[in-house]
Amino acid sequence: MARTKSAKVYEGRRPLIAGNWKMNLTHLEAIGLVQKVAFGLKEPELEAAEVVVVPPFTAIRSVQTLVQGDKIEIGFGGQDLSTADSGAYTGEVSGAQLKALACTYVVVGHSERRAMHAETDEVVAAKVRKALEHELVPILCVGEGLEVRKAGEHVPYTTAQVDAALEGLDAATVAGVVVAYEPVWAIGTGEVATPEDAQEVCGAIRSRLAERFGPETADVVRILYGGSVKAGNTAGILAGPDVDGALVGGASLDADEFVSICRSAAESR
Ligand SMILES: O=C[C@H](O)COP(=O)(O)O
C-alpha cells in the first residue's frame, strides 16, 4: 500500500485525478473503495499523479479516519459547500466543517448543482471565495450544454463562466484554484469529448487566465477535463498540453477502473 512520504517538489503541473463519487456509497463502502485504490497504486504512481476522492458528506469522516490512520497518500474533499459559515441553513455544509475534517478540496459549481439547485454564476463565485477563505482548494467546474456546443459557442461560454467565478480575485489567489472543464453533454452519457475537444477548451481557459491574471499564474493553474472519463480514454485526453488531469464520475466508483485512470495520469508526464 502506498504510504505518506515526505513532501516533494514537482516541476510543472502535477497531474490530478479527482474521483467525484456524487450521491453514491455508504461510509462503509467508501472505506472499502479507498482501501482497494490505495492497494492498487504504487508509491511512485502516487508521487507522479495526485489522487483525490470526493465522497458524499456522510462518508468523509470515514475516509479521513482511514487515510490519516493508515497514512494513505490519497487526498479527499467535499462535493459542495455553503456560501454561509453557520446558522439556519438546513441541509447545507460549511467550508469550516469540511476543513475540520481535513478536506483539501471542494468541488464548486458542478453542472448538476447549477442545473438542479439553480446555482448561478454569482453563487458559484461566492462559493469559490468561501472555499478559499477556509483554505480549501476549489475545483471550479465549468462547461457548456449541448445547445451551446452545437452553436459553436463553447469557448466563449466556458471562459465567461471562469471569468465570473474568479471575478475580483488576485493572481496569487487564482494560482491556487483548480478548474475543471466538463461539457454537460459528456457527463454520465458515455459521450466523451475527443482529446482535441478537451484541449481546445482547456487551452482557451488557460489563455484567458493568462490575459486576466498573467502568464505565470496561468502556467501553474491545473485544468482538468471531466465527462465520461474511463481507463481507456484517459491517456488520449491527458495528452493535451493544457489538460492536467480529470474529474471522474462513474468510473471512480470502480476501484480497478479508477486505479487504471490514475496510472495513466502518472504516466502522462
Ligand atoms: O464530476 C464528474 C463529472 O460529472 C463526470 O462524470 P462522469 O465521469 O460520470 O461522466
UniProtKB/TrEMBL annotation:
PROSITE patterns: TIM_1, TIM_2. CDD domains: TIM. Transmembrane segments: none annotated. GO terms for cellular component: cytosol. It is found in: Cytoplasm. Substrate binds at residues 20-22, 188, 228, 249-250. Its EC number is 5.3.1.1. The active site is at 110 (electrophile), 182 (proton acceptor). GO terms for molecular function: triose-phosphate isomerase activity. It catalyses: D-glyceraldehyde 3-phosphate = dihydroxyacetone phosphate. It is an enzyme of class 5 (isomerase). Keywords: Cytoplasm, Gluconeogenesis, Glycolysis, Isomerase. Pfam families: TIM (PF00121). InterPro entries: Aldolase_TIM, TIM_sf, TrioseP_Isoase_bac/euk, Triosephosphate_isomerase, Triosephosphate_isomerase_AS. Homodimer. HAMAP family: TIM_B. Belongs to the triosephosphate isomerase family. This is Triosephosphate isomerase. The lineage of its organism: Bacteria, Bacillati, Actinomycetota, Actinomycetes, Geodermatophilales. The gene is tpiA.
